[in-house]
Design a protein that fits this description.
The complex is a heterodimer of chains A (753) and B (710).
Chain A: H1 2-32, H2 56-78, H3 87-114, H4 120-138, H5 140-155, H6 157-179, H7 184-195, H8 198-212, H9 229-239, H10 245-271, H11 274-289, H12 311-325, H13 328-344, H14 346-371, H15 376-401, H16 408-422, H17 432-435, H18 439-464, H19 473-485, H20 487-491, H21 503-517, H22 522-541, H23 544-548, H24 610-620, H25 624-633, E1 639-640, E2 642-643, H26 647-654, E3 657-658, E4 666-667, E5 678-679, H27 684-697, E6 701-705, H28 715-720, H29 722-734, E7 735-740, E8 744-749
Parallel strand pairs in A: 1-3, 2-6
Antiparallel strand pairs in A: 4-5, 6-8, 7-8
Chain B: H1 9-40, H2 67-89, H3 100-125, H4 131-148, H5 150-166, H6 169-192, H7 196-207, H8 210-224, H9 240-252, H10 257-283, H11 286-301, H12 324-336, H13 340-356, H14 358-378, H15 385-411, H16 418-432, H17 442-445, H18 449-474, H19 482-495, H20 497-501, H21 513-526, H22 532-551, H23 554-557, H24 571-580, H25 584-593, E1 599-600, E2 602-603, H26 607-614, E3 617-618, H27 644-657, E4 661-665, H28 666-669, H29 675-680, H30 682-694, E5 695-700, E6 704-709
Parallel strand pairs in B: 1-3, 2-4
Antiparallel strand pairs in B: 4-6, 5-6
Helix pairs in contact in B: 1-2, 1-3, 3-4, 7-24, 8-9, 9-10, 10-11, 10-12, 11-21, 11-22, 12-13, 12-19, 13-14, 13-15, 14-15, 14-19, 18-19, 19-21, 25-26
The chains are: A mainly alpha (753), B mainly alpha (710).
């Protein structure tokens, strides 16, 4: 047996070293002897694509021969000692080291290839690792001593307290370093040029400006995702100096950071292990913030960030306190928080409410099992618990929306988009990933609910059998909450969208690892948790989306424009202006609003640095002439009918309220484009609501982009831009142009029309 | 904080029981959800009213579905079943193990679910296929049926097991043999029970016989017409193969695509049978041999690199390396009972292999040489070292001698002339200089991760196997027979050059037989370390997996065998082939302006078939000269004149021989296609320019025009 173990370890070391040596040869070979062929001048051009000179045959043979030679050499030296037990530990150590080096090298080599054409950073990493790998071989014994001493230092009980403090402080710093954005202006500039604020305008900027200008969401103006969050964000933004894209972004980032710090604090207490808590938290951050569905940057889609479900940290923190202390008031606070989340953002409020009801139901059953069915108190508590989220939410609605809450229209507006969604609008079937042949994503997508259901069942029994303490109930409630959150993926099953709500899943993994860890010795538990932490950090640090994230850990000072880190689209095309780059020529006019014969679309390579990008943003978003026009024809506090791209930005600059219920009305595209724009009006009813408002109010002036006045247009424009053209046709019929500015024109209502 | 108590024996039992019951709850819930999904397919989803108010441009965003309902059913039912199951058994969870009958029930449900999910997966990812639907419904009904009639099913099974146990040794052997024959016949029917019209039609429709002509057809026709291979006409892949195929085809009634396909299939069939019997005899394990041959068939015949049908690409079928199994068998025999006869026969076959196809022959000879060398080193300290060295030299001379004798018999004194050798090595030189090469990470760029990993794993397994087995034999820790595995690994490494140079996705499966052998070897070594019943179960599972993997493979499903699993309608394709592949009029034109036995200078798509129809010898050294495209299409496929040297050689042939008539495709000569074609295909333009200068149009056939020298 000893021989077999030693022989296998030795063979592995030889094989791994041969592979590492091959990597060195490949790196040197590609630099010094790039593949060339004398056939290049001999081949006819029509066949030139078939000619791809390479050195792979040489590398292949080198690998085989070096492996055989090293095996021969190793056996020649060690064959007499292979039966010795004393040889095993040193071989084991070396084999593990080789396995680790090889893993890192292969993983980085893999990244070099899949990161194409942005592989430079991975290449640097590869060379660095390769040097490290061979230095480690040379100074193997010294490294062994250092590692052993480090291990002893970590495992010494006397150091435990100091290390725990260090790790805790380090964890907070780590979370902050991951999430905090160094240059918010550059990021906003990228929002502007990347997707013209599209997602954040509809999710957050529109509703926040509505609230800031004194209007009521979903009564005066739509707030598609929920009611309360614009109030909170607006309040926080005001503390930071007023509503602007930069301040809203900063608030979102801060909320996200605090959310994760909160969860770290909670997980650390719940799981009673800093390393495990930080490992699952890092995994959670990697999944939630850096999955392909949020390319290129999670805050581009504010609705996929923890801002959406921020109350859950308070919910679970209170739940934890209730489970630990058993104090009644924590119980009621949980219900209140569920209600607050429902007020804040409807869908996640519903999921937290479900989780709350489940918990209340659990306690009710516990109570009746202990005291019988005919005690009044449990029933009273059950009814109260059922009511609690409704009551707390309603109070908040009343405080913020006042009398509107008693109007059926308000509640109809609240449900408008969820009604569309449940009727199949914007829905993707769960088989999408399979038909797109994204099998990994599909499998993970199906795995989530199974794990949740299994957790509810198994953890419940473990609690009842007293194998785990009652605090494990948090895993059950997390699973219920996770099942609710999973609706997001059930209805809109695109690629990795299940990862948007993946945090409960990550926390549950932490729970099961903790349960599993109890079966190991303390020493091994600590080691495994540290390995898991390292693995999670490695996974995070090598994710391309993380490398591109503009935080303090970014390798570049210009993360938004530097090709070293900034990601292009999957097909290699530039990300900037990607939504409009492929607009068909048939839908374009000869010149744009400035009289230029091009669209003025920039791409990443047009900017030498993030500062240049910011400079461009300031220039391109300078609407002062148009703002002055609006201010000239409207008074402060007035609702201004504006039909234009970047309407939120313009209205904010002009300090005017939005007029239309569907706000933003226009899906922004660059102002310099030679094309029309689309609207956020999807149905005839929505269009009617918009034109009816104009018909009833008869505002004397309407502001509109100049280029929107181009008429007549071919019929096929009406197929593509139906709602936009019907709306602008109405305006052009009832209004006439009066005065123009840079991009906008003011139209005055015609008499007797 | 979370506190978990120390787990004792009773807790472990509880945990095991909970896991079984939880899985049962989830599985039953999944089963019910699947049933609900199936039923709901027959109930139309009511169109939401708001759709009528939606603008047409947004209609594509509406996809009404019942996903939420199904999801809710799954969750609710799983929790309900779990509550009921655990409620019933709650008191006994710590005391009793759940009964074996419940375990069987869980296994039945799980197997049924796996089958249903697998069929559903195939149904979703390949909606055009007919079989996944059938399998899905069958699995659904079978799973439900098995759950209801589980006791009866178990009784029947145990009766069958008892009957098996009660049968005598001879009866058992007869049954096993019968099953083996049934398996081989079944596999034979699946692979070779083909409708040849479909095979030819597909080859024509997809490839226009491009690979077929280049690999075998043209060189065989040239040889049958008396041309010397690689002297008069190129024979890119092999000198001997055209002779073998040509001779058999002549005996069958003449050269045709049909006959050549049939010969190649017969050769492949024999090869597979040999590989199977070799594995059976080597590993002494029927099931592993069955697994191995199924795996090889699945990988080699039905991987993406041979889309849509392997017979379209004769260069990648086992005919390419047909002698290897025989040589390995001889080495195996020699390892069992060392005899010069075996080694000599192996050397002879190696010589034949080199004469047959240079690259694979050299690899095989090198592997055999490694075997001889390892044997010498193994007995280095013995007295007969010198005899062994001399014997090795003789064997090497024998192999090379056979190669040269065979070639001499084919080309005569040309074998001593430099031109012949430069012709033989012409294509190899191109290949080694990067012609047709692809980087090994090519698949990775296209995100074919599995293919890429497999491409790397295979040589690592070979190297590791060679290292381990050889070392173990030399350290006297393993039987000398393990050297066969070393030789296989070395042969695998050598033949793997095919993939290293041309790393197209999954093309490593073309040369995967040594890998299959090695995989089977390690499995066979691993299985005896398992406990009694588990051994058989794992082997059966492996065979089962291989069968399912083969039968569910997309290419196999569309394979034109008797099963026709895809339910594909082949008629239009066959009709198209019959209509398009008719060249009698053009063959008559050639016959009119050339004499029998005369070389006819033909520059046209499908030149091989036209010359066969006209019964004329090819004129050009590069034959085929033109990459075929459908005659009725407005396309050009280019030429085989890849280099300037080839162009000079071709034009020199015309200039030296000055043939009175040249036959050329009208669409090439008359310049009737858009100008971009002639600009892109410079080689075509150069040839046509020459013809326009030296020849004039004389008479037209259907697709060809006869040109007369000015």
């Amino acid at each position: 047996m000893t021989f077999t173990i030693n022989f296998c370890l030795l063979s592995w070391i030889v094989l791994a070293t041969a592979m590492e040596l091959l990597m060195v040869v490949v790196v040197i070979g590609q630099q010094l002897f790039p593949p060339a062929s004398h056939l290049t001048s001999q081949i006819f051009p029509e066949f030139i694509d078939t000619l791809k000179p390479e050195n792979e045959t040489f590398y292949y043979r080198f690998f085989i021969l070096s492996a055989f030679a090293m095996q021969l050499g190793a056996l020649a030296i060690l064959h007499r000692r292979l039966e010795e037990k004393s040889l095993t530990p040193s071989l084991k150590f070396r084999a593990t080291a080789e396995a680790l080096w090889l893993f890192f090298l292969v993983s980085v080599a893999f990244k070099i290839i899949v990161y194409q054409p942005r592989y430079q950073l991975a290449l640097h990493g590869f060379v660095f690792l390769l040097i490290g790998c061979f230095l480690h071989k040379i100074f193997f014994h010294r490294c062994q001593i250092v590692l052993r001493e480090a291990r002893n230092f970590i495992e010494r009980e006397a150091n435990a307290s100091a290390l725990r403090t260090l790790l805790t402080v380090g964890s907070f710093l780590w979370i902050a370093a991951i999430i905090i954005i160094v240059n918010p202006q550059a990021v906003v500039a990228r929002f502007f040029i990347g997707e013209q604020f599209h997602h954040n305008d509809s999710f957050i900027m529109g509703p926040v400006w509505v609230v800031a200008s004194g209007l009521i969401p979903n009564w005066d103006v739509i707030s598609q995702y929920g009611f309360g969050f614009p109030y909170i964000i607006e309040r926080l933004v005001q503390w930071r100096g007023g509503v602007s894209y930069e301040s809203v972004l900063s608030v979102m980032v801060t909320m996200t950071m605090l959310y994760y710090i909160g969860w770290f604090w909670l997980l650390r207490r719940w799981l009673n292990s800093i390393a495990l808590a930080l490992a699952v938290l890092t995994l959670g951050i990697k999944w939630q913030m850096f999955h392909p569905g949020v390319y290129p940057f999670v805050f581009t889609y504010g609705s996929t960030t923890p801002v959406r479900f921020i109350m859950d940290i308070f919910f679970f923190a209170c739940l934890y306190r209730h489970l630990v202390t058993g104090k009644q008031y924590w119980f009621w606070v949980i219900g209140i928080i569920a209600g607050i989340q429902a007020w804040y953002l409807t869908s996640e409020g519903v999921y937290l409410t479900l989780a709350w009801w489940f918990y209340a139901g659990w306690l009710f059953i516990e109570s009746v099992l202990a005291n019988g069915w005919f005690q009044l108190k449990p029933w009273r508590y059950l009814v109260l618990a059922f009511m609690m989220p409704f009551v707390s939410a309603f109070i908040l609605f009343f405080v913020s929306a006042k009398q509107a809450v008693f109007q059926p229209m308000f509640w109809a507006n609240m449900q408008e988009f969820s009604r569309y969604f449940f009727s199949g609008f914007g829905v993707m079937p769960m088989t999408t990933n399979l038909t797109d042949r994204e099998f990994g994503a599909a499998l993970m997508g199906f795995l989530f609910p199974m794990v949740y259901v299994a957790t509810i069942i198994v953890a419940s029994i473990l609690i009842y059998q007293k194998i785990v303490s009652r605090v494990a109930l948090m895993a059950v409630i997390l699973a219920v909450y996770g099942l609710g959150f999973y609706y997001y993926y059930v209805t809109r099953s695109t690629l990795t969208s299940y990862l948007v709500g993946s945090l409960p899943f990550a926390w549950i993994i932490g729970f099961w690892l903790k349960c599993l860890g109890q079966q190991w010795s303390k020493q091994w538990r600590r080691r495994i948790y540290l390995i898991l932490l390292t693995g999670a950090c490695y996974a995070l640090l090598t994710t391309h989306l993380f490398i591109a994230y503009p935080n303090i850990l970014n390798w570049s000072h210009n993360p938004c424009t530097d090709p070293l880190v900034a990601m292009p689209l999957k097909n290699g095309q530039p990300y900037f202006n990607h939504l409009f780059r492929d607009t068909p020529q048939g839908f374009k006019f000869n010149i744009n609003v400035l009289g230029q014969a091009n669209d003025g679309l920039q791409s990443e390579k047009d900017f030498s640095s993030d500062e240049a990008l910011i400079e461009f943003y300031h220039q391109a978003s300078d609407f002062h002439e148009d703002v002055a026009l609006i201010q000239k024809y409207s008074s402060p506090g007035q609702r201004v009918p504006l039909v234009s791209s970047f309407e939120i930005r313009i209205l904010m600059d002009a300090h005017r309220r939005p007029y239309f219920y569907y706000f933003p009305l226009i899906i922004s595209r660059p102002m310099t484009m030679r094309s029309l724009a689309k609207t956020s009006i999807y149905t005839i009813d929505q269009l009617k609501k918009t034109t009816d408002t104009l018909e009833q109010d008869r505002p004397p002036y309407v502001f509109m982009e100049k280029i929107f006045m181009v008429r007549p247009l071919p019929d096929y424009f009406y197929q593509e831009y139906t709602s936009f053209l019907l709306l602008t046709d109405y305006i052009l019929k009832h209004y006439e142009p009066m005065e123009g500015a840079q991009y906008l024109v003011v139209l005055k209502r015609k008499e007797n029309v | 904080m979370l506190i978990i108590k120390e787990i004792d024996q009773a807790d472990r039992l509880l945990l095991r029981n909970i896991c079984w019951l939880t899985w049962l709850a989830i599985a039953e819930s999944l089963q019910l959800t699947i049933l609900v999904i199936v039923v709901s397919q027959f109930i139309l989803i009511k169109t939401p009213t708001f759709i009528q108010h939606l603008f047409p441009a947004n209609l594509n965003d509406v996809r009404p579905e019942r996903g939420i309902l199904f999801y809710q059913i799954f969750v609710a039912v799983a929790l309900l079943i779990a509550a009921v199951l655990i409620g019933i058994r709650y008191q006994r969870l710590r005391i009793d193990q759940i009964s074996p009958s419940l375990k069987s029930f869980v296994l039945v449900v799980t197997s049924g679910l796996v089958s249903q999910l697998f069929a559903a997966f195939k149904w979703i990812t390949s909606p055009a296929l007919a079989w996944p639907k059938i399998l899905f419904y069958f699995a659904l009904v079978a799973t439900i049926g098995c759950q209801i009639f589980l006791p009866e099913l178990k009784a029947a099974l145990s009766k069958a097991v008892q009957l098996w146990k009660a049968s005598s040794f001879v009866q058992k052997q007869v049954i096993k043999l019968g099953m083996e024959i049934v398996f081989l016949l079944g596999l034979g029917f699946a692979l070779f029970g083909l409708d040849m019209n479909k095979v030819l039609a597909r080859d024509f429709a997809v490839d226009q016989f491009y690979h077929f002509d280049g690999f075998i057809m043209s060189s065989t026709w040239a040889w049958l017409q008396g041309c010397v291979p690689n002297v008069d006409v190129i024979s890119q892949y092999s000198l001997l193969l055209p002779v073998i195929i040509g001779s058999i085809a002549k005996w069958m009634g003449g050269l045709s695509y049909l006959h050549v396909d049939e010969i190649l299939m017969a050769m492949t069939g024999i090869y597979l049978l040999l590989a199977y019997t070799f594995m059976r005899s080597w590993l002494k394990n029927r099931l592993i041999a069955v697994f191995g041959i199924l795996l090889f068939v699945k990988w080699n015949f039905f991987h993406w690199g041979v889309t849509p049908i392997i017979w379209m690409l004769p260069g990648v079928i086992p005919v390419r390396y047909i002698f290897d199994v025989a040589v390995l068998w001889l080495i195996f025999k020699d390892l069992k009972t060392p005899a010069l006869l075996y080694r000599g026969s192996a050397a002879l076959l190696c010589g034949l292999a080199m004469a047959y196809m240079v690259d694979t022959g050299l690899y095989l000879t090198a592997a055999f040489g490694a075997y001889v060398g390892l044997n010498i080193f193994l007995y280095w300290s013995s007295k007969d070292r010198l005899r062994r060295l001399i014997e090795a030299a003789v064997l090497l001379i024998l192999a090379i001698g056979i190669w040269w004798i065979v070639w001499y018999s084919l080309v005569g004194p040309w074998i001593f002339i430099k031109t012949f050798w430069s012709n033989v090595t012409e294509h190899i030189a191109l290949f080694l200089n990067g012609w047709g090469a692809l980087p090994i990470y090519d698949g990775l760029k296209e995100r074919n991760f599995f293919a890429f990993v497999m491409g790397l794993v295979i040589p690592i397994v070979y190297v590791a196997t060679a290292m381990v087995t050889a070392s173990m034999v030399f350290l006297k820790k393993a039987h000398q027979k393990w050297l066969l595995t070393t030789v296989m690994a070395l042969y695998g490494l050598l033949i793997y050059h095919y993939f290293i140079i041309r790393s197209a996705v999954s093309s490593y499966y073309v040369v995967c037989l040594p890998f299959v052998f090695i995989l089977c070897f390690w499995i066979n070594e691993f299985i005896p370390t398992l406990k009694g019943k588990l051994r058989l179960r794992i082997q059966v599972a492996l065979v089962g997996w291989a069968v399912v993997a083969l039968f569910s493979n997309q290419l196999f499903v569309y394979y034109p065998n008797i099963f026709n699993l895809a339910g594909y309608d082949w008629k239009p394709e066959i009709q198209f082939y019959r209509q398009e592949f008719q060249f009698q009029k053009d063959a008559a034109l050639i016959q009119k302006f050339s004499k029998p036995g005369e070389a006819a200078p033909l520059i046209s798509s499908f030149e091989t078939q036209i010359l066969i129809d006209a019964n004329r010898k090819p004129f050009f050294y590069y034959f085929p000269l033109i990459t075929s495209r459908f005659m009725s299409a407005q396309l050009i496929g280019g030429t085989y004149v890849h280099t300037r040297a080839r162009m000079i050689k071709t034009l020199n042939q015309l200039e030296t021989a000055k043939p009175a008539y040249v036959f050329v495709e009208k669409r090439l000569f008359n310049h009737t296609l858009p100008e971009r074609f002639y600009q892109y295909f410079q080689t075509v333009s150069l040839l046509m320019d020459y013809l326009h200068n030296q020849y004039t149009s004389y008479e037209e056939g259907q697709y060809l025009v006869a040109l007369k020298r000015r």
